[in-house]
Amino acid sequence: MTKVRDLHADWIKDPEYREEYERLGPEFDLALALIKARTQAGLTQEQLAARMKTTQSVVARLEGGRGQPSTRTLEKVAKATGMRLKISFELDESAV
């Protein structure tokens, strides 16, 4: 069975794939941060959804990187997981 990381290692050699992957990087990072917050809090998607007063499918969409959550939604996730939301701007060395 082929693993995703092995496929990615091959695909990343393709300039078109690499460009799109890098373009989507921030969305992947946000989805990963949401998953980490939930799992560190020891919650299932369903439990997190209940604390946020939403549905499990909404949490799944957030964690799947589909859509861009508002800061209000991110605050709800932070509160529901016992964390504090911190947003920052960092210099993009590639843009300089």
From TrEMBL:
User: Matching InterPro entries, A to Z?
Assistant: Cro/C1-type_HTH, Lambda_DNA-bd_dom_sf
In what residue span(s) does the HTH cro/C1-type domain sit? 34-94
The record ties this protein, via Gene3D superfamilies, to: lambda repressor-like DNA-binding domains
Which source organism?
A: Candidatus Contendobacter odensis Run_B_J11
Q: What SMART domains does this protein's entry cite?
A: HTH_XRE
Domain of life of the organism in this record?
Answer: Bacteria
An MF annotation (GO) of this entry: DNA binding
**Name of the molecule in the record:** Helix-turn-helix domain protein
